[in-house]
């Protein structure tokens, strides 16, 4: 059987290590040219497939592809675009088949989170529904760490390392000034429904820092929260608070809800930190500072976890290996074997059990009062932030790669998404 081409794309919010997964996919495919002729990347995710806007990765040198391993963001562009069901939008699926046929694509690798897993699962069903053979493999990625089955998600370890480090450094700053100035520092982090990123801030407790965490999994009780802040400040003279953007009131309203929606229909969040900081100021009079980590937390390749980089690459490599072994509608996973010493291996999960399923913080990872993390949570988190994997530096700045992203010649007519 002649070799088929592969389609690879990145989806959703990018991370410090998603390009390491791209590197794993492309380098592994290049070692199997008898089965994969070329890897075409979708420019801006699945939109690149629908609009036939493909990138010819064969035009990139081995050195440029290798440099993806230490370059942040999405090298081929990402998107927030979720395919509807075949019944609801047959037009898009027929277009995908048209593009796949035109470019002899037999493998589909989609690198993303929960919504991307859903898209990949739908594409995997094209063989039966529309009579075109394509093997679809989901390559896991999400800073939110909320994909099921896998122990953790590539992208999370580096965000956790960045947040824990930033919270620690800022806390040292506040501690030095608290006698006559700032008493409270509030750091807002990502995490709409799951508090994994916020939990990483709890690791600074072991450095004698008074820290409180607001999780999406724990209903926000304002009176109890203010009382706890007062207790911390009276005891230590200052307090650091890490708040997840998804922290919410008992009625389900987000502290940070803006009243707008993103492309997936999710409430757009942003502003939990100032809400919390001003709430404290009104109740106590404490002077405060607040910050929103925002893109900094997911773009910080200079402080990436070595564990995370290695796992991101391994998931990309395993995705190709699974496809070459004939697997379809699956996702490679991280399977933890031991926490101390840390050991893991590559596992496999069916996409039918991954798509549209969120993994939340277990209650035994959160302290009884709801404002901290337990020893079992620390045991889970610490291995994931281990090791440094610095990029090369030039003239004092990281030396990242920008690919040529040469287009593949179009063969079809235009298509509007």
Task: Itemize the secondary structure elements and their pairings.
Elements: E1 4-10, H1 18-30, E2 36-42, H2 46-50, E3 54-56, H3 62-67, H4 90-102, E4 105-112, H5 114-124, H6 126-130, E5 135-140, H7 156-177, E6 184-189, H8 196-200, E7 211-214, H9 222-236, E8 239-244, E9 257-261, E10 267-269, H10 272-284, E11 288-292, H11 294-299, H12 306-324, E12 330-339, E13 342-350, H13 375-381, E14 393-394, E15 397-398
Parallel strand pairs: 1-2, 1-4, 4-5, 6-8, 6-11, 7-8
Antiparallel strand pairs: 2-3, 9-10, 12-13, 14-15
Helix pairs in contact: 1-12
EC number: 2.7.1.90
Subunit structure: Homodimer.
Subcellular location: Cytoplasm
Short description:
The protein is an alpha/beta fold and 417 residues long. The protein is built from 13 helices and 15 strands.
Provide structural commentary.
- This protein is an alpha/beta fold and 417 residues long.
- The chain has 2 domains: 4-141 and 302-356 and 389-398, Rossmann fold (3-Layer(aba) Sandwich), CATH 3.40.50.450; 156-298, Rossmann fold (3-Layer(aba) Sandwich).
- It contains 13 helices and 15 strands.
- It has helices at residues 18-30, 46-50, 62-67, 90-102, 114-124, 126-130, 156-177, 196-200, 222-236, 272-284, 294-299, 306-324, 375-381, and strands spanning 4-10, 36-42, 54-56, 105-112, 135-140, 184-189, 211-214, 239-244, 257-261, 267-269, 288-292, 330-339, 342-350, 393-394, 397-398.
- It has a 5-stranded mixed beta sheet, sandwiched between helices. A 4-stranded parallel beta sheet has the order 7-8-6-11, sandwiched between helices.
- Strand 9 (257-261) and strand 10 (267-269) form a beta hairpin.
- The mean pLDDT is 95.
- Substrate binds at residues 142-144, 190-192, 245, 295-298.
- One of its GO terms (cellular component) is cytoplasm.
- InterPro entries: ATP_PFK, PFKA, Phosphofructokinase_dom, PKF_sf, PPi-PFK.
- It is found in: Cytoplasm.
- It catalyses: beta-D-fructose 6-phosphate + diphosphate = beta-D-fructose 1,6-bisphosphate + phosphate + H(+).
């Amino acid at each position: 059987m002649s070799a088929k081409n592969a389609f690879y794309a990145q989806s959703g919010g990018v991370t410090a290590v998603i390009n390491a997964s791209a590197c794993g996919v492309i380098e592994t495919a290049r070692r199997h040219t008898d089965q994969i002729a070329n890897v075409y990347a979708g420019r801006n995710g699945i939109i690149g497939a629908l609009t036939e806007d493909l990138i010819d990765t064969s035009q990139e040198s081995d050195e440029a592809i290798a440099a993806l391993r230490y370059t942040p963001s999405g090298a081929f562009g990402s998107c927030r675009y979720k395919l509807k069901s075949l019944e609801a939008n047959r037009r898009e699926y027929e277009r995908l088949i048209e593009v796949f046929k035109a470019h002899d694509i037999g493998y589909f690798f989609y690198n993303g989170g929960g919504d991307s897993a859903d898209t990949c699962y739908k594409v995997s069903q094209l063989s039966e529904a529309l009579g075109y053979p394509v093997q679809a493999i989901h390559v896991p990625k999400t800073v939110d760490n909320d994909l099921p089955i896998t122990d953790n998600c590539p992208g999370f370890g580096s965000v956790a390392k960045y947040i824990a480090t930033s919270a620690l450094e800022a806390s040292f700053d506040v501690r030095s000034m608290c006698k006559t100035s700032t008493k409270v520092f509030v750091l807002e982090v990502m995490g709409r429904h799951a508090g994994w990123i916020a939990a990483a801030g709890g690791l600074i407790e072991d450095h004698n820092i008074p820290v409180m965490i607001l999780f999406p999994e724990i209903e926000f009780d304002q009176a109890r929260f203010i009382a706890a802040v007062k207790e911390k400040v009276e005891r230590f003279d200052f307090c650091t608070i890490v708040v997840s953007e998804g922290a919410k009131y008992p009625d389900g309203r987000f502290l940070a809800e803006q009243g707008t929606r993103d492309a997936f229909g999710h409430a757009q969040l942003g502003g939990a930190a100032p809400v919390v900081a001003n709430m404290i100021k009104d109740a106590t009079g404490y002077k405060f500072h607040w910050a929103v980590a925002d893109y900094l937390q997911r773009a910080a390749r200079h402080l990436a976890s070595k564990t995370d980089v290695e796992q991101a690459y391994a998931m990309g490599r395993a995705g190709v290996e699974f496809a070459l072994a004939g697997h379809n509608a699956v996702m490679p996973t991280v399977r933890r074997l031991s926490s101390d010493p840390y050991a893991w291996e590559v596992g496999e999960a069916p996409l039918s059990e991954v798509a549209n399923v969120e993994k939340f913080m277990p209650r035994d990872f959160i302290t009884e009062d709801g404002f901290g993390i337990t020893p079992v949570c620390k045991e889970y988190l610490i291995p994931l932030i281990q090791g440094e994997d610095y990029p090369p530096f030039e003239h004092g700045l990281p030396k990242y790669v920008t690919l040529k992203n040469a287009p593949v010649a179009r063969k079809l007519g235009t298509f509007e998404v």
